[in-house]
Amino acid sequence: MTGLSETWDSLFGLAGLANPVAFLIGCGLGWYADQKVKIAIAAFAAAVLSLFFDAAVRSSGMTALAPYDVGALAAFPFRLLAGAIGASLLYLLRHRILRRGGEKNGSRSEP
Predict the structure, then answer these.
(1) Which of 24, 31, 82, 97 could serve as 90's disulfide partner, Cβ 3.0–4.6 Å?
(2) Quick check: is 40 in a domain?
(3) pTM value > 0.70
(4) Cα separation values, 9 from 16, 58, 75, 110, Å
(5) Quick one: how many helices (H) and strands (E) in the chain?
(6) Nearest CA to 10 among 58, 85, 78?
(7) What is the tally of structural domains in the chain?
(8) Mind listing the pLDDT tens digit of every residue in the chain (111 residues)?
């Protein structure tokens, strides 16, 4: 990294906000969240697990998904946000599906 713009590009790119591992883990955990508070827990877990995954890939010698020079502490808040976006989307989608299914059956289930 030579400048500040490359750092921000990396943090908003695959190393941070657009990290597919954090997003997919957040989506998976958000699907099973039954309360809105659990979205924050899902986001934190997605960020931590994506950093563990990244460390495992790098230590095994495999090529990383996105080569970057920012540290884990710099990438963590951006991956937390990516996990929160994924968890929120799937939480809302699941509860919309459940609400629609309850209306068809004649009973309304509160998510």
Answers:
(1) 31
(2) yes
(3) yes
(4) 9, 20, 11, 42
(5) 4, 0
(6) 78
(7) 1
(8) 457 788 888 888 888 888 999 999 999 999 999 999 999 999 999 999 999 998 888 889 887 776 777 888 888 999 999 999 999 999 999 999 988 886 665 555 555
